[in-house]
């Protein structure tokens, strides 16, 4: 007959052993499989040690946007000169995007008209620095100074956008409306309008989707989903786009095109 | 005096858990260290008292109230070591300006050592009242003395190696240690469930002895006019909400949703300010006549105070939980309600404020009630000896392990080493980045 103390030690020891084996063996092995890392690295990571000297592999350069919304960048946009922007647009941009921001090819080029200046600045800067890969835009942007990019961003942000006056309640499938206004919590999809709306609380560089060309938007969502376009901060859009079905992607692109 | 003077002088505005690299006046911390050292004297006295009792009564079971109080003293000795190391070796040197940088991860880890067990140090007196006073005053017997001892020992063992659950969102620890301590935290729910069961069973005995019948009839038969019985009922009621919130906080995954929100603030108001403090009030009402030899002029005023405290706490903390779930952040003094995103919080906060006002009035009534013992019309009565609840089956002999703390101290040492040795040692092995000391008292 074991004493009470012995039994207590056995029970407490067994529960502690369970706690430690779940935390330091079972969970890391599951995580290794889910995250595609080898089991030894995962075990070391769970215990707080780095298997490979030097820690995590260096982040791939050029894959993530380098734009930071520092006071100096915001200042630059606040002081942008719209007249200079108009001149640069006529010189550099208008051949494809027209002076009014309505682009020549609605499949590969966006409508620039009425996009927030911060959204335009971020995309132009990313293309200049190669974090958004675009062979046609890169050399053009490389010739512009950061101040000039701010000027041209301000100019196009002041052009009259397409189809701004459409209402959310217009005829559309309920499922699409739900994605726009509520998202889908089962898939951890936030509502589109929680960021892409003037009243949204999203990142300050979120573009205006209303009036964007549907083919362009659909192409960009597919590019995010496939990881071809990677300049979204914290992989937000890559995560979201990858969860949308192709039908949903097209439906959303058509939705934001506005009434026909 | 040192602590109060520095706080009121605005020289120690470092929030409740210090938040290094913020540092206040060194005298603030020295004052706190002196408080801790003073409390150790009480701990030693409790240990000596129990040793003396055992010497006089060889082979007999230590009375439950003494066993539980000593368990609390042992817990306090263990738990204060973490914060003492943090203050003496890291924070006070920085506050004096002897060091210029602080390893924030290490200080937070050491504080977490203290942080959770300190809560159980506050909780255990309420539990002692549940076990030893409530059944007696309800006219019943304690259902199981052994169960009570196991509960207190479980608090001692599982109250300590679980502090990392306060650091689930901290970057300095690996998932393994967080997860292991989470599992141990789950086990700390066991003594609470044991207590709920044992105390409910004891109350059922009392209710049936008083003529209550049927499945729930015994509840109505309990002497709810007796303040401590009423407080036990109200405390248990709040414990459901507080315990439920606690289970969410301690789950590594769910914690991420609520960690930096006012859900946490609301939780500890509910569980400590509610479940625990209401028992302190009732214990005071029970012990005051024993200390002063005066009887209370009005039990009704005491009941009103307990009811208003429970209602005020619910009104305060339920909307607060809700706001936390909706992302209201904590550790801030005010919100900008003109921001349309959060303007809807305003009405809910007004309800919280209403709860706070009820609590304030209740606290004033508590002081009034204590004062009323000494008013002219309160009767003097002979001091009745304090009686603690007897067990249904009197525990003449308990297992040796449950009549002392030797084994449990060894187990605490083993579990604390397993839980904290590497998390603390890594600060010295990997040399983490240091934070520049930020003096809030205007020095340097």
Major protein interface? A-B, 24 and 27 residues
What's the average pLDDT of chain B?
90
CATH topology of the largest domain in chain A: Cytochrome Bc1 Complex, Chain D, domain 2
Strand content of chain A: under 5%
Could you give a short account of the major beta sheet of chain B? 2 strands, parallel
Strand percentage of chain B lies at: under 5%
Number of helices of chain B: 14
CATH architecture of the largest domain in chain A: Orthogonal Bundle
How much helix is in the residues of chain B?
Answer: 55-70%
For the record, the CATH class of the largest domain in chain A is: Mainly Alpha
Structural class of chain B: mainly alpha
What overall form of chain A do the CA principal axes indicate? Answer: elongated
Task: Tell how many strands the DSSP assignment of chain B holds.
Answer: 4
Overall morphology of chain B: globular
Total number of distinct structural domains of chain A: 3
Please mark out the parts of chain B with pLDDT under 50 across 5 or more consecutive residues, or reply none. Answer: none
Task: Summarize the helix and strand pattern of chain A as letters.
Answer: HHHHHHHHHHH
Descriptive account of the structure:
The complex is a heterodimer of chains A (260) and B (444). Chain A has helices spanning 4-35, 39-47, 71-78, 82-97, 117-129, 137-142, 146-157, 174-181, 214-225, 236-243, 246-257. Chain A is mostly helical and 260 residues long. Chain A has three domains: 2-60, no CATH class; 71-157, Cytochrome c-like domain (Cytochrome Bc1 Complex, Chain D, domain 2, Orthogonal Bundle), CATH 1.10.760.10; 174-256, Cytochrome c-like domain (Cytochrome Bc1 Complex, Chain D, domain 2). Mean pLDDT of chain A is 86; it is low at 54-62. With 444 residues, chain B is mostly helical. Chain B is built from 14 helices and four strands. Chain B has a two-stranded parallel sheet with strand order 1-4. In chain B, helix 1 (2-8) runs antiparallel to helix 2 (26-56) and helix 4 (104-132) packs across helix 11. The mean pLDDT of chain B is 90.
């Amino acid at each position: 007959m074991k004493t009470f103390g012995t039994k207590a030690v056995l029970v407490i020891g067994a529960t502690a052993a369970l706690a430690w084996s779940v935390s330091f063996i079972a969970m890391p092995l599951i995580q290794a499989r889910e995250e595609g890392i080898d089991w030894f690295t995962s075990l070391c990571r769970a215990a707080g040690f780095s298997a490979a000297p030097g820690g995590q592999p260096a982040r791939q350069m050029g894959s993530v946007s380098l734009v930071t919304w520092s006071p100096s960048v915001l200042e630059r946009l606040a002081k942008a000169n719209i007249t200079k922007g108009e001149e640069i647009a006529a010189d550099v941009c208008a051949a494809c995007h027209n002076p009014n921001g309505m682009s020549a090819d609605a499949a590969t080029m966006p409508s620039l008209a009425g996009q927030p200046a911060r959204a335009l600045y971020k995309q132009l800067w990313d293309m200049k620095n190669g974090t958004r890969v675009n062979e046609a835009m890169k050399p053009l942007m490389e010739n512009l100074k950061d101040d000039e990019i701010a000027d041209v961003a301000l100019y196009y942000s002041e052009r009259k956008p397409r189809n701004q006056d459409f209402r959310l309640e217009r005829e559309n499938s309920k499922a699409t409306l739900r994605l726009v206004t509520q998202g889908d919590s089962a898939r951890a999809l936030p509502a589109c309008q929680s960021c892409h709306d003037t009243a949204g609380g999203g990142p300050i560089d979120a573009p205006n989707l209303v009036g964007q060309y549907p083919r362009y938007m659909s192409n960009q969502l597919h590019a995010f989903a496939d990881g071809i376009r990677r300049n979204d901060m914290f992989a937000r859009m890559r995560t979201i786009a990858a969860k949308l079905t192709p039908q949903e992607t097209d439906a959303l692109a058509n939705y934001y095109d506005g009434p026909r | 005096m040192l602590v109060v003077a520095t706080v009121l002088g605005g020289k120690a505005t470092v929030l409740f858990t210090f938040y290094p690299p913020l540092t206040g006046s060194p005298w603030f911390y020295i004052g706190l260290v002196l408080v801790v050292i003073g409390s150790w004297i009480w701990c030693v006295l409790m240990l000596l008292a129990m040793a003396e009792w055992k010497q006089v009564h060889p082979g007999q079971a230590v009375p439950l109230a003494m066993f539980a109080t000593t368990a609390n003293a042992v817990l306090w000795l263990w738990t204060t070591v973490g914060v003492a190391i943090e203050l003496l070796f890291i924070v006070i040197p920085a506050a004096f300006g002897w060091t210029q940088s602080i390893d924030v991860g290490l200080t937070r880890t050491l504080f977490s050592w203290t942080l959770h067990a300190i809560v159980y140090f506050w909780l255990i007196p309420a539990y002692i009242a549940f076990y030893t006073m409530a059944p007696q005053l309800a006219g019943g017997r304690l259902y199981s003395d052994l169960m009570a001892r196991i509960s207190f020992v479980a608090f001692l063992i599982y109250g300590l190696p679980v502090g990392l659950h306060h650091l689930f969102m901290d970057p300095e620890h690996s998932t393994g240690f967080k997860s292991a301590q989470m599992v141990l935290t789950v086990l700390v729910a066991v003594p609470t469930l044991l207590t709920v069961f044992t105390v409910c069973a004891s109350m059922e005995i009392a209710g049936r002895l008083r003529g209550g019948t049927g499945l729930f009839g015994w509840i109505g038969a309990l002497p709810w006019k007796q303040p401590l019985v009423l407080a036990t009922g109200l405390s248990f009621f709040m414990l459901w909400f507080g315990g439920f919130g606690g289970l969410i906080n301690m789950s590594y995954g769910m914690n991420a949703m609520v960690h930096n929100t006012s859900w946490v603030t609301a939780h500890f108001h509910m569980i400590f300010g509610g479940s625990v403090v209401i028992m302190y009030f009732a214990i005071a009402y029970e012990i005051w006549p024993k200390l002063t030899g005066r009887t209370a002029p009005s039990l009704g005023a005491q009941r009103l105070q307990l009811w208003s405290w429970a209602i005020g706490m619910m009104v305060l903390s339920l909307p607060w939980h809700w706001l936390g779930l909706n992302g209201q952040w904590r550790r801030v003094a005010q919100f900008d309600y003109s921001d349309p995103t959060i303007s809807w919080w305003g009405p809910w906060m007004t309800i919280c404020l209403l709860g706070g006002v009820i609590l304030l009035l209740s606290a004033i009534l508590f002081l009034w009630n204590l004062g009323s013992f000494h008013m002219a019309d309160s009767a003097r009565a002979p001091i009745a000896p304090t009686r603690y609840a007897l067990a249904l089956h009197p525990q003449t002999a308990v297992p040796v392990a449950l009549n002392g703390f030797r084994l449990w101290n060894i187990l605490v040492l083993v579990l604390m080493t397993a839980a904290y040795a590497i998390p603390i040692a890594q600060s010295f092995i990997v040399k983490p980045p240091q934070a520049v000391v930020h003096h809030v008292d205007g020095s340097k």
